[in-house]
Every structure is written in structure tokens, then in C-alpha cells.
Automatic annotation (TrEMBL):
This is LacI family DNA-binding transcriptional regulator. PROSITE patterns: HTH_LACI_1 (PS00356), HTH_LACI_2 (PS50932). InterPro entries: HTH_LacI (IPR000843), LacI/GalR-like_sensor (IPR046335), Lambda_DNA-bd_dom_sf (IPR010982), Peripla_BP_I (IPR028082). Residues 8-62 form the HTH lacI-type domain. It comes from the Bacteria. The keyword Lipid metabolism does not apply. Signal peptide: none annotated. It holds the Pfam family LacI. It comes from Streptomyces mimosae. GO terms for molecular function: DNA-binding transcription factor activity; transcription cis-regulatory region binding. The keyword Repressor applies. Keywords: DNA-binding, Repressor, Transcription, Transcription regulation.
């Protein structure tokens, strides 16, 4: 603040925003159940007036540091980037700063960073990962601050874990392909020791069963999450089961390989075969030939949800268990257009 310039008070912020002082305080401190538009109006007023809260005084009064630790398994992973954006968006709205620590899936590094974060008196910790399989909790003894696991699942049911609903994603893929009129399905996915691969297959199969169709094991291929595996699996699929007219892929990398083989074999997508991927990784889906329909795990929203739950726990609300956040389908060309309704469910030819 320049010499001689008077500090803006929270009373002035409240007056500018047209709210009470207590509402302005809750909005600026990330507390209470306020409407998003109210919180945004308070922030806008604070920015216009140049309001700068006294961080030290706020910490002393509320006995909080207004900092949170973000302990990542792989901070540069493509799944963690949107996840971290969502976490920081939600925490930033509450004027909470974030300490990012990259544990690199190393228990010793993770323990070091945990001790470091606790020594800095963080108000809470978010743990992020790259798999939805259960992992050991941060500590075998109760920690002095709340912890939320995001795109990472604690093996301790007393912890709170927030995961994408992979089974729901599989259902979305099946519903889309069924709506396009396809009737003979295959699935090419990653290793079955990944919970995500098993859940996506379960949701896909369940939806086909609801429609009176089956997906036999002989038309399910499991292997590395790589384009090369997608190419090889698709080649074997076409040799053994040329009748297949729809393929659900467990990742966009696998789907790109499948599209390559279909194109090389002269099978037109989506005229003769429908294909749906998973992850909605823009660099792969948008430049595919044709553009790839894909399931999006809504990772930024998932991160925001996890951060909001952590803020609630910091305020004293106890939460535990497992939250599965819904996926969405990003429809492009590869899955095929919904088939016109024909009495008896017969798909028109030609």
C-alpha cells in the first residue's frame, strides 16, 4: 500500500457488495453456505476497492493458517493437471494458499512431505493420484488435520475419497453406441489389475445386458494403455470377429490405435463401425480421424468437489467414505449418429 493511502476495511467491501459484514467475512474467508453469485459479488467488490486482508491477524483470530497441502503422486501427469486446477480454483475462492508437493509414488518422499506440511501448520491436505485402486492411508495414526483423497482411494474407510464414476462412464459409452443402432460389441482396454478398467467394463456390460445384448469374454481384450496395443488388438478382433460393429475402448490412446487398424482394413468409421474412447484427452480425440467420441471424467469438477469437502472438514464437519463423481460423454463423430426409430427396433440398411 503506498504511503499515506488508507487501508480499505471489510465494512466498505460489504457496503459495495450490498451484503452484511458477516456475509462479506464468510465469503472472503471461504466459510459458510453462501450462493456462488453472493461470493463472487463480494470478491468483485474487494478487487475493485483493493481490499487486502491481514493474513496474520486472520490466522491468529481464527486459529488457522489458511494454507492447504496438495500432495501429488505425479504432479505433471495429464490427469493431475485438470484435477489440480479444480482444487486450486475452489481453495482460491476461499483465499486459501496451496503448498504443492510431488511424492512421485515414493513412500519415503511422501512421508517427508507430510511431516513438512504438518510442521507448517497447514489446515488440511489433499492427496491426488493417477489410479483409483486403494492405496495405504497417509498415516496409520490419526492426523491433526483433515485429509481428502482425490482421484486416489484410501484403503481406510474412515478417510474420505473422491473418485470418478468409471462404471457410469462405461454406461454412457454403451448408451451412445446402442442409440446409434450398433448391436455387436467388443471392448479393448487396459490391464485388468486397474480398478478403472474393471469398473468401465462392468458399466458397459450392465447396460448392454439391460438392452438384451451380451459382451462375451472372447470379445474383450486387455493389455497396456498404449496405441500399439489398440492396433494389435483390433487386428486380432477383425480376424476373429469380423461381425463386430462397435468398439468401446478403455482409453483414448487405445482408441487411436483401434482407429488406425480399422482404417487400414478398410472399415469405415462411423459408417460401418462405431468407436468410443475414454479420458477425452483433447490432443488425441480432436485430431483423430474421425474425431473421437470419448468419456470425460470431469476431473476439474472432481478437484473442486474434493477441495470444497476439505474446506467443510476444516470447519469441523466430519466426512468419510467414498464419493463417485459422474462422468460425461463428449460426442464427436466416431460413435455414429443415433439411428432413426423404426418399429420393431430394426436398423435400416443403406
Amino acid at each position: 500500500m503506498p504511503d499515506g493511502q488508507r487501508a480499505v476495511t471489510i465494512t466498505e467491501v460489504a457496503t459495495r457488495a450490498g451484503v452484511s459484514i458477516s456475509t462479506a467475512s464468510k465469503a472472503l474467508n471461504g466459510r459458510g453456505q453462501l450462493r456462488d453469485e453472493t461470493r463472487e459479488r463480494v470478491f468483485a467488490a474487494a478487487n475493485e476497492l483493493g481490499y487486502q486482508p491481514n493474513a496474520l491477524a486472520r490466522s491468529l483470530v481464527q486459529r488457522r493458517s489458511f494454507t492447504v497441502g496438495l500432495l501429488s503422486t505425479e504432479s505433471a501427469d495429464r490427469f493431475n493437471i485438470p484435477l489440480h486446477m479444480g482444487i486450486e480454483n475452489a481453495l482460491g475462492a476461499g483465499r486459501v494458499s496451496v503448498f504443492l508437493c510431488d511424492g512421485r509414488a515414493d513412500p519415503l518422499r511422501e512421508r517427508f512431505y507430510l511431516d513438512s506440511l504438518l510442521s507448517r501448520r497447514v489446515d488440511g491436505i489433499v492427496v491426488t493420484g493417477v489410479r483409483t485402486d486403494a492405496r495405504p492411508p497417509l498415516s496409520t495414526v490419526p492426523l491433526p488435520v483433515p485429509v481428502v483423497y482425490a482421484y486416489s482411494r484410501s484403503a481406510d474407510p474412515n478417510d474420505l475419497s473422491v473418485l470418478p464414476d468409471d462404471e457410469h462412464g462405461g454406461r454412457l459409452a454403451a448408451e451412445h453406441l446402442l442409440s446409434a443402432g450398433w448391436r455387436t460389441f467388443a471392448h479393448i482396454t487396459g490391464p485388468m489389475d486397474f480398478a478403472a478398467a474393471r469398473d468401465r467394463l462392468a458399466g458397459f456390460r450392465a447396460t448392454l445386458a439391460d438392452a438384451g445384448l451380451e459382451l462375451p469374454d472372447r470379445r474383450v481384450y486387455s493389455g497396456p494403455w498404449r496405441e500399439s496395443f489398440g492396433r494389435d488388438a483390433a487386428a486380432d478382433l477383425l480376424d476373429r470377429h469380423p461381425e463386430v460393429d462397435a468398439v468401446f475402448c478403455g482409453s483414448d490412446q487405445v482408441a487411436r490405435g483401434v482407429l488406425d487398424t480399422l482404417r487400414e482394413r478398410g472399415r469405415r468409421v462411423p459408417e460401418e463401425v462405431g468407436v468410443v474412447g475414454f479420458d477425452n484427452w483433447g490432443v488425441l480425440t480432436e485430431d483423430s480421424r474421425p474425431p473421437l467420441t470419448s468419456v470425460d471424467m470431469n476431473l476439474q469438477e472432481l478437484g473442486e468437489l474434493a477441495a470444497r469437502r476439505l474446506l467443510s472438514m476444516i470447519e469441523g464437519h466430519r466426512e468419510s467414505g467414498l464419493i463417485r463423481h459422474p462422468c460425461r460423454l463428449e460426442v464427436r463423430a466416431s460413435g455414429g449418429a443415433p439411428a432413426p426409430h423404426v418399429p420393431g427396433g430394426i436398423r435400416p440398411v443403406g
